[in-house]
Amino acid sequence: MTYTILGRAVRNEHLALGVLLTAFGGGYFASRGGSSSSRPVPQSVQQAKASVPVSAGSSEEEEFIKKFVEEAEKENKH
């Protein structure tokens, strides 16, 4: 069976292959991800900590957050 698309005869097999190629090709390229050079990666843990600001409402809250992070890091070292 053939279909007429833009004035040309297109066979059923070609339509099926086109749909499959588009679906699998799109899935492949979508799962490739971006380039790794687009995001700067911190060199060490200390640089990563320095790059993330602590936005606390008060100094007490900021101290609480810092203590919580330190305790969580100590637990992860065990």
Question: How would you describe this structure to a colleague?
Answer:
With 78 residues, the protein is mostly helical. 58% of the residues lie in helices and 10% in strands. The chain is built from 3 helices and 2 strands; from the N terminus they run ββααα. A two-stranded antiparallel ribbon has the order 1-2. A hairpin with a 2-residue loop joins strand 1 and strand 2 (8-11). The chain is rod-shaped, with a radius of gyration of 27 Å. The model has no long low-confidence stretch (mean pLDDT 85). It is found in: Mitochondrion membrane. Residues 32-46 have a biased composition (Low complexity). InterPro entries: ATP19. One of its GO terms (biological process) is proton motive force-driven ATP synthesis. Residues 32-59 are annotated as: Disordered.
